[in-house]
Structure formats: structure tokens, C-alpha cells
Design brief:
The complex is a heterotetramer.
Chain A: H1 2-35, H2 51-61, H3 72-88, H4 107-115, H5 117-128, H6 132-155, H7 157-163, H8 168-173, H9 185-198, H10 210-213, H11 223-248, H12 263-284, H13 290-317
Chain C: H1 2-6, H2 15-23, H3 31-45, E1 50-56, E2 62-67, H4 72-81, E3 89-97, E4 102-110, E5 115-123, E6 129-131, H5 140-151, E7 154-156
Parallel strand pairs in C: 2-5, 6-7
Antiparallel strand pairs in C: 1-2, 3-4, 4-5
Chain D: E1 7-11, E2 23-29, E3 32-39, H1 47-51, H2 56-64, H3 71-86, H4 92-121, H5 125-145, E4 154-155, E5 158-159, H6 167-190, H7 193-199, H8 207-212, H9 218-221, H10 229-232, H11 253-276, E6 297-305, E7 308-316, E8 324-328, H12 330-335, H13 338-342, H14 347-357, H15 361-364
Antiparallel strand pairs in D: 1-2, 2-3, 4-5, 6-7, 7-8
Helix pairs in contact in D: 2-3, 3-4, 4-5, 4-11, 4-14, 5-6, 6-11
Classes of the chains: A mainly alpha, B alpha+beta, C alpha/beta, D alpha+beta.
Chain lengths: ~325, ~150, ~190, ~375
């Protein structure tokens, strides 16, 4: 039974994630549509529920094109390299007190480490396409992801200091009284900004800035390979929203002692709010400029994240605050 | 930060506002009366004065007349009347000059076809296009027969 | 077109001037302006610099000068750089084919005094060559390319005289009256 | 400094941010632009040549297609030049209608500019909000003249249609509506820090450069020069209305944005005044001969289109067709400054600067 679950579990998760991606895309289009005074997709299926299914089907039956002067093997490798880490990071995510695949001691570190591999996939994709826009997009992506990984990691150091562990379960358990969003507010803001940037979403969607670089690193991709890039992007939304929930919003813990709902439901509610916030930001903000993006990471976010660490360590020793830190 | 917050507030408020899109093509779009759509042509009214052909800026109208079959009557009657909708820009000048309102605008605007050849509309097709005809048309009415015409002053 | 062919004019006259003559309009309030301009330019560049100066009455009494081809750049430079003239704004640049000759018109504007002047130069149709004014007016650059492209006037000293609106391999200059389109249907 | 290899990037003619079919040959060093050369003419339809074979009335629908975002001003340019040559009197009601539609069209055009500009910079929603509000203007035009973009509304001597019953009231209603909406735009865009960062101090040029390149419209006014043909060489009945000419100082993109937004406010003021003073009745066509024969001569008139000075230069030989018709197309003049502005800029600024000029390719290419 355990062995069966060991193999079957990830498959089930994969389908859950695919289902999420399908409806996350639809929800994004719907939400942005409503914000913009439109209805959003409503033609395929009731309320457009089958729209993404139709889109994916279209992508699957599309001709598989590879540009003549592209580096064929790298061109094929890139989408896989971009997608696999996005799914692999889900292994350590505690969705509820019982649903988790790998409860490892360095869960947080594992997440951060594995997710950076995607950058290589994007860079390879941009380079192998042999297209100037793709190259620019790939370069931007590499610069951006590397710059923003540092504030992202540093912003959660405060939590690690408080909990004294990198294990995600222990981090959730430590939030039974107070969610970390309150004591770690600076860390939270830095984390949210850096994570939006890691996700390559507006206002940090420079690698695929459609009004500048047409589509950026995936400009030459079509059909199934393009679907993989899209899939990676949305699985990361799934992963990053989960991580935000786990780190700052108390994971499966119920707020105000409202324990009549099971932990997983609370997790989903918090998770959905984070996802909605991402859509909402996307519908509102313009795109930041590439040089300002770098300045922002190194000159604003990094000092803030460092200050947060210092404040956390100091407050840990102050009598009253020890309760929260 | 404040500006960004204000922006988020605006978008959130707009999310619950009523939507402005039309359910076209499921529900046909109602165009105002003056809308310049595909022409309707009434062969009985045409006096073959050729004004529409001369005024057309893109030369998309071609017509031929023949002698009136009724020997009592003078003048000509229309034989063929074609409008090439590949190049017609629906500028309204032909209906403006037509003294008898033989060619008038309708509110129909759907012209898409799978072949360019189908955009070449002849007299019969234009006569059959008799729905949603515009009420005001000519600026150039025949002096005696139509005292008020469509002159909008 | 054929009517014009039948009566070859001995000396080409500007079209606008005829209107003024025929209708015998009352003298324009702007007459002193144009007289002053003509004297000033003639004094600086010699009698032959300005061929004619008149008022284009229908066009809000627009002072109009006809410049000799040789002094074109000198006149423009004086009009632009003289402090009391200061026509720095190139409002419009057109080229016209009168069948007997070509004409280039620059409408200049002084934005401070709100004064306008039109300067014209007549060119031979076969050898339409004019020195470029793009170093005086940055806006003249593309305008001269457009005139070259559509009217076939060669501007000497232009930094990049090539076709601008039509493809580089186009044959002929379409705005010339004797231009024959290759494809009649288009 | 390390020298890197320069790369030739072909932006357009099919690119989301070139607003049509503009092509830019950009030499880039990393993301820095070394040199940019606009290639135009992809939308050249030879309007000026075609016009030589058309009567004055027939030219009007062709002008609709030049600056397709503000066809009313284009209509007016040609009819105004023709009327000036023929010395026609225009009935007051017709002039009022012309001013109302031209100012509404200016608002519509600026709204599209605002929306597409924000889209270039990466914000999606302002684009749809702007189109939502512009749609109301297009509906008004549709009701007035039966078309949403290619109006063909003005005629030599007046306008084609009188206002349908209730139309003036709708215009008045719209003015109030848009004045409210403008506040929302300012909340959404004007104070947005990212937008300010993207536009403040970018694409700056001084007044002398602007005059030398013969820029016009907001592109000229942003350098601090108060120059608006509606004020400085008044045409139609603009002298009757009180309005201000918004002027910038810094000459950067943010000021340009503010200028255009304030121009919308001023246009709304003009429309509101015109609606209030709208003559209860009157003719909409002056005394015009059936066949328009323009006396021999030439005339150049410039009017203030949303993009700048739209001029019409007619040379007539006394026929019913112009001997030569030349349009001073403001986008064509304004685009010329682009290579100068793009030098040593970042690629992200390319779209911001290009968008700031506000070109319509139908007009650039004639």
C-alpha cells in the first residue's frame, strides 16, 4: 500500500497540478477580463470552462516547428529543463498536516535551489532559438532571476531564524499563534516582490515583454514545446503561491481558531487569494524597465532584506518580542 | 507605493462594474439609422442618370442601361447594375447624389465570404438586400417629384 | 491635361499671381512686409536673388517670394538666421509639377512673431537639381527625400538621398504629371 | 571598457509596438541602441496622386484613411482649404457641428494614444478602459454620420448631416461622463510610480530641436512653447471658445502624457461650450455650386489635428479637380526626430519614446 502510494501519489499530484494550470489560465483570463470590463472566454463549454482544454488540444495537434538555424538538441532540451524543476519543487510542499511528499530537513533550501534551474532552461531556449528577440529575452531572464533570487532567499532568513529550522512543516507549525506575515512584514513585502519577479510576471515580465521583445525567450517556440514553457510558468505560480502560504500565511492553520474547516481547505483559500493577487497586479501595473529592475533588486530589496535579518535577530533578544520572533 | 495602491483600487472597483462587451455575433448589433451599410438598389426607381458611377471615388459601380421596353415611355431603364465590394468603401456618395433614391444605404454590414468573387454583387443581389433600409438618403432630390427628399436642413 | 499641352506658355507664371491680377483685389495689408523682404534679400544677395515677391491673397495674405535657383540656400539661411526674420519653423514643403517646370515651395513660419512666408523656386523638369536645406532645417531631411521619391528632384548635399515612401527599386516618380503607371489596374 | 559585438535588430514592420507597419532598423550593443533608422512607406497608398484624378468631394473619403484615428480633422483640413480658395461662407450651425466632432475626435484620438501607450509600457487595463470610453464617442459619430472611423462627414460648404434629435444632449451627457472618468485615469496611471519611472526624464529634447524638426502638437508644446493653431491662427469658430493650451516644461515623456491628458480636459471644455451655445436652428450647408470648381491659385492651411499641424496645400488650375494636393502630415514630421532620440537609449525606452511621439502610420505613409 505504501509502495503504491509512493508511485501513485506523484501521478495524482501531477494531474492535480495540470488541472490547476488549466483552470488557473482560465481564471486569469476571466479575472483580467472582468477587471477590464469584459466577460472573458465564454464560448467553449459552459462559462468557457473548456477554453484552456481546447487551447491545449490546439497546441498538441500543431505542427512541431524548429527554426532552421536553431541548435536542435538544445532547442528540444530547453522546455524540459524549464518544466521539470517547477514540478520537482512541489515535493517538499506541505499542503496540509498530512499531505506532503517529502518531509526533508532543508525543504526551503531545496525549493530555492531547484527552482533556479529553470533559469538555465529559459536561457538555453533563448539562445538555441537563434533569434535576436529570444536572445535578448533569455539574457534578461538570466540577469533578472539571478538578481532576484538573492533578496528572495534573504527575505525568508528572518523566518528561518525565528523557527530555527529549514523544514517547511516546522515553519507551518510555528505559525499556529501568529502568522509570519505580521512580525516579518518587511520580509513579506520583499518576498512578494521578489517572487513576482521570479515568476516573470507583470510588472517584472521583462523576459517575455510582449511590447518590446514580441514574446522574448519563447518567440520561436510553438505547439507542444511552447505549452511546456507555459506549463512551467503556471506550475511555478502554483508552487510560489503555495510557498507564500506556507511561509507567511500560516499554511493549513485556521485563522481565529475557525477549525471547523479542514486544514486543506484553509490552505486552498489562502492559496487562491495569493493567486488572485498575482492576477490583480498583472491587470494593473505597467512593466518596469530593465535597468531599473536591477537597481531595484540590488539597491532597494537587498538592503531591506538584510535589514529584516538584523531586526529579527535583535528583536529575538528583546523580552516582549521574543514571543513573536 | 501610494500610486500603485490607488491603481489597484481602481482595477478592483472596475471588476464589479457592468461589462461593456456585446454578445456579437450571437446577438446582432443594432446600428443607428444613418449607418452606412451595404447598398440596396431598386431598379424600378433608377433613371440611369449615371451620377453614382461618376461620383464614386473608387470606381466600384458599373451600370448599363437599355431603351425603355415600353414604347410610350421615353428615356432608359437599368439593365445591369454591379457594385464591387472588394473596393467599395461605403462612403455614401452614391446615395447622396442619386436623385430618385434608387440606390440607398441599409444597416447591413456583414460581407465576409470565402471568395473574392462573391464580393461582386449584381443588380438582383442588391435588390434582394431589402432589410433595414435607411430612411434618409439623398441630398440631391429630383426637384419636382420629391419636394422634401432627405435634405437634412 | 490636353488643354494645357495646346498652349505652351512662353514664360511660366505662378498660378497664384494670376488670381491677384485678374480680380484686381484691393492692395493687401501685408504688401509692405513682402516689399521689405524683397528689398532686404536683394540688398544682401543681389538683384537676381529674388525673382518676384507678391501676396497670395486668398491664403490669408501670405507673402510669397520666388527665389532664383542659385540663391535658394542663401535666401533660406537669411530667412532663418536673421534675428528680425527668424523663420525657423519649416511648416510645409511641397513640390509641384506645372508640366512646364517644377516648383518647390517651402512654407516657413516664425513662431514668435506669428509671421509666415512662402518661398518658391522653379526648376527645370529635365534637370531638377536643388541644394539641400537639411542642414538648415532638420525637418527638410525627410521632406526632401519625399520630393526626390515622388517628384524626382535631386537635392545635392543631402545626407541620405534615397526613396522614402516607395520601394528602392521603384521606377519613375509618380507625382510627375507624365508618370505612367506600370500596371494600369493598380 | 569591453567592446561587444553590435547586433542588427529588425523591429517591425510586424511588431506589437510599432503601431502599424513602421519598421526600425536598430543597431544594438547589448540592450543599448547605437543607431536606429526608421523605414517607412509600407502603408503608402498614394493619396496625393489619387487626389489629382478626383473631384474635391471625392477626396474627402480618402482623407478619412490617412489619420484613421481622427478622420474628422482630416476631413476638415481638405474642406477648409477648398473653402478658403473658393471664399465660401459656412453657416454657423455647420461650424458648431464641425467643432464638436473635431474636438470629440481629438478626445477619442488621445484616449487611444493613452491606452496604447500604456500597453507599450506594459499595462493592459488602461488600454481597455480607454477603448471603452472611446467607444461612446464612436457611437455618437455612428449615429451622426453612419460610420465609426471613416466618417466622410464634412462637405465643402458645410457638413453632410444635421445632428439627429437628442444627439446634442447625448454629447453633453458624454462630457460629464468623461470628466468623471478622467479622474479614474489619473488615479490609475498618473500617480503610478512605475509609470513615472518609465517616463520621467526619458526622451527629452529642447525647444530649438523641436522647432528645427518642425514638430507640432503635444510634441512641440511639451518643450514649453505655447503653440496651438486653434489659438495662433484661428480657423473655424475657435475664437468663440475659451480654453487653455496645455504646455509642458521638461520635454520628457511624462510631460507629454500630462499635456495630452490636459488636452482632453480642454477639448471637453470646448465641447461643453459648443453644446451650450449650439444654435437652435440653421442651415448646415452654405451656398455651394453643384460642381465645385476651385479658382486658379494655391493655398496652404494648417489646422491643429490631435497629432499636430495637419496642413493641406492645394494648387488649383481652375478645374473641378486639384492640380496638386499635398498634405502636411504631422506624424511624418514628428517621426523624423526618432533616430536622434533613440541614440544611446535602452531597448525598453525604444517603445516608450516611439509611443510618446504618437504616430499613425496611415498618416506617416500618406
Amino acid at each position: 500500500m505504501d509502495a503504491l502510494l509512493l508511485y501513485l501519489g506523484p501521478v495524482i499530484l501531477l494531474f492535480i497540478v495540470l488541472g490547476f494550470v488549466t483552470y488557473a489560465i482560465l481564471a486569469e483570463r476571466k479575472v483580467i477580463g472582468w477587471i477590464q470590463g469584459r466577460i472573458g472566454p465564454n464560448q467553449v463549454g459552459p462559462w468557457g470552462l473548456l477554453q484552456t482544454v481546447a487551447d491545449i488540444l490546439k497546441l498538441l495537434i500543431k505542427e512541431d516547428t524548429i527554426p532552421k538555424n536553431a541548435d536542435r538538441s538544445l532547442f528540444k532540451l530547453a522546455p524540459i529543463l524549464a518544466f521539470v524543476p517547477s514540478f520537482a519543487v512541489l515535493a517538499v510542499m506541505p499542503f496540509s498536516s498530512r499531505i506532503q511528499f517529502a518531509n526533508i530537513g532543508v525543504g526551503l533550501l531545496y525549493y530555492m535551489a531547484i527552482s533556479s534551474i529553470t533559469t538555465i532552461g529559459i536561457l538555453i531556449g533563448g539562445w538555441a532559438s537563434n533569434n535576436k528577440y529570444a536572445l535578448l529575452g533569455g539574457m534578461r531572464s538570466a540577469a533578472q532571476m539571478i538578481s532576484y533570487e538573492i533578496p528572495l532567499v534573504l527575505s525568508v532568513v528572518g523566518i528561518v531564524l525565528t523557527v530555527g529550522s529549514l523544514n517547511l512543516n516546522e515553519i507551518v507549525a510555528a505559525q499556529q499563534k501568529t502568522w509570519f506575515v505580521f512580525p516579518q512584514i518587511i520580509g513579506f513585502v520583499v518576498f512578494i516582490i521578489a517572487s513576482v519577479s521570479e515568476l516573470n510576471r507583470t510588472p517584472f515580465d521583462l523576459p517575455e515583454a510582449e511590447s518590446e521583445l514580441v514574446a522574448g525567450y519563447h518567440v520561436e517556440y510553438s505547439g507542444f514545446r511552447f505549452a511546456f514553457f507555459m506549463l512551467a510558468e503556471y506550475v511555478y505560480i502554483f508552487a510560489m503561491s503555495s510557498l507564500t502560504t506556507v511561509l507567511f500565511l500560516g499554511g493549513w492553520n485556521a485563522p481565529f481558531g475557525l477549525t471547523f474547516l479542514p486544514g486543506i481547505v484553509w490552505f486552498i483559500i489562502k492559496f487562491a487569494l495569493v493567486v488572485f493577487f498575482l492576477y490583480w497586479v498583472r491587470a494593473t501595473m505597467p512593466r518596469i524597465r530593465v535597468d531599473q529592475l536591477m537597481q531595484f533588486a540590488w539597491k532597494v530589496l537587498l538592503p531591506l532584506a538584510l535589514a529584516n535579518i538584523v531586526i529579527t535577530t535583535l528583536l529575538k533578544e528583546v523580552p516582549f518580542f521574543t514571543l513573536y520572533y | 507605493m501610494l500610486g500603485l495602491m490607488k491603481g489597484l483600487n481602481v482595477t478592483l472597483k472596475n471588476m464589479v462594474k457592468p461589462k461593456v462587451t456585446y454578445n456579437y455575433p450571437k446577438e446582432p448589433l443594432k446600428m443607428p439609422d444613418r449607418f452606412r451599410g451595404i447598398q440596396y438598389f431598386d431598379p424600378d426607381k433608377c433613371i440611369v442618370c449615371n451620377q453614382c458611377v461618376r461620383v464614386c471615388p473608387t470606381d466600384c459601380i458599373s451600370l448599363t442601361g437599355k431603351k425603355n421596353p415600353d414604347p410610350e415611355q421615353k428615356g432608359k431603364v437599368i439593365d445591369t447594375y454591379d457594385i464591387n465590394f472588394e473596393i467599395c468603401i461605403l462612403c455614401d456618395l452614391c446615395t447622396e447624389v442619386c436623385p430618385t433614391e434608387a440606390v440607398v444605404m441599409t444597416n447591413n454590414f456583414e460581407l465576409s465570404t470565402y471568395s473574392r468573387d462573391e464580393l461582386f454583387k449584381n443588380r438582383e443581389w442588391l435588390f434582394a438586400n431589402d432589410e433595414n433600409i435607411r430612411s434618409e438618403n439623398t441630398l440631391n432630390p429630383l426637384p419636382a417629384k420629391k419636394p422634401k427628399g432627405g435634405s437634412p436642413s | 491635361m490636353s488643354e494645357e499641352d495646346k498652349k505652351p506658355p512662353v514664360r511660366p507664371k505662378p498660378a497664384a499671381k494670376k488670381v491677384v491680377d485678374e480680380k484686381a483685389l484691393p492692395p493687401s495689408p501685408k504688401q509692405p512686409v513682402v516689399d521689405d523682404l524683397v528689398t532686404q534679400l536683394k540688398g544682401k544677395l543681389g538683384e537676381r536673388a529674388v525673382l518676384e515677391g507678391y501676396i497670395n491673397q486668398p491664403n490669408d495674405h501670405l507673402p510669397t517670394l520666388i527665389i532664383s535657383q542659385e540663391k535658394w540656400i542663401d535666401v533660406l539661411s537669411i530667412l532663418k538666421n536673421e534675428p528680425d526674420l527668424h523663420f525657423t519653423y519649416l511648416q510645409n514643403a511641397s513640390a509641384i509639377d506645372y508640366e512646364t517646370h517644377l516648383e518647390v515651395v517651402f512654407h516657413l513660419h516664425d513662431l514668435n512673431r506669428k509671421e509666415r512666408v512662402a518661398v518658391k523656386v522653379k526648376l527645370d523638369r529635365e534637370q531638377a537639381v536643388l541644394p539641400s536645406a537639411s542642414h538648415l532645417f532638420a525637418a527638410a531631411n525627410w521632406n526632401e527625400r519625399e520630393m526626390y521619391d515622388l517628384m524626382g528632384i535631386h537635392f545635392t548635399g543631402h545626407p541620405e538621398l534615397k526613396r522614402i515612401l516607395l520601394p528602392d527599386e521603384w521606377v519613375g516618380h509618380p507625382l510627375r504629371k507624365d508618370y505612367v503607371a506600370l500596371d494600369k489596374e493598380v | 571598457m569591453i567592446r561587444t559585438e553590435e547586433m542588427l535588430l529588425n523591429v517591425g514592420p510586424q511588431h506589437p509596438s510599432t503601431h502599424g507597419v513602421l519598421r526600425l532598423l536598430v543597431k544594438v550593443d547589448g540592450e543599448r541602441i547605437v543607431e536606429a533608422e526608421p523605414v517607412i512607406g509600407y502603408l503608402h497608398r498614394g493619396t496625393e496622386k489619387l487626389a489629382e484624378d478626383l473631384t474635391y468631394t471625392q477626396i474627402i473619403p480618402y482623407t478619412d484613411r490617412m489619420d484613421y484615428l481622427s478622420a474628422m480633422t482630416n476631413n476638415y483640413a481638405i474642406v477648409h482649404a477648398t473653402e478658403k480658395m473658393m471664399g465660401l461662407e459656412i453657416p454657423e450651425r455647420a461650424e458648431f457641428l464641425r467643432v464638436i466632432v473635431m474636438e470629440l475626435n481629438r478626445i477619442a484620438s488621445h484616449l487611444v494614444w493613452m491606452g496604447t501607450y500604456l500597453l507599450d509600457i506594459g499595462a493592459m487595463s488602461p488600454f481597455l478602459y480607454a477603448f471603452r470610453d472611446r467607444e461612446q464617442i464612436l457611437d455618437l459619430f455612428n449615429e451622426l454620420c453612419g460610420a465609426r472611423l471613416t466618417y466622410n462627414y464634412m462637405r465643402v460648404g458645410g457638413v453632410k448631416w444635421d445632428a439627429p434629435s437628442g444627439w446634442i444632449g447625448k454629447v453633453d451627457h458624454f462630457v460629464t461622463y468623461l470628466q468623471k472618468q478622467m479622474k479614474e485615469y489619473h488615479q490609475l496611471v498618473t500617480g503610478n510610480e512605475i509609470f513615472m519611472q518609465r517616463t520621467k526624464g526619458i526622451g527629452v529634447y529642447d525647444q530649438e530641436t523641436a522647432i528645427s524638426f518642425a514638430l507640432s502638437g503635444a510634441n512641440l508644446r511639451v518643450t514649453g512653447l505655447n503653440w496651438d493653431l486653434r489659438k495662433d491662427s484661428p480657423y473655424s469658430i475657435y475664437e468663440k471658445f475659451t480654453f487653455e493650451v496645455p504646455v509642458g516644461e521638461a520635454g520628457d515623456l511624462y510631460q507629454k502624457y500630462l499635456c495630452r491628458m490636459r488636452e482632453i480636459d480642454e477639448s471637453l471644455k470646448i465641447v461643453a461650450q459648443a453644446v451650450d451655445d449650439f444654435p437652435a436652428e440653421g442651415k448646415i450647408m452654405g451656398k455651394v455650386p453643384r460642381v465645385l470648381r476651385v479658382p486658379e491659385g494655391e493655398v496652404y492651411v494648417g489646422i491643429e489635428s490631435p497629432r499636430g499641424e495637419l496642413g493641406c496645400h492645394i494648387v488649383s488650375k481652375g478645374k473641378d479637380k486639384p492640380w496638386r494636393l499635398k498634405f502636411r502630415r504631422p506624424s511624418f514630421y514628428n517621426l523624423q526626430i526618432l533616430p536622434t532620440l533613440l541614440k544611446d537609449e535602452n531597448i525598453s525606452n525604444l517603445v516608450a519614446i516611439l509611443g510618446g511621439i504618437d504616430i499613425v502610420l496611415g498618416e506617416v505613409d500618406g
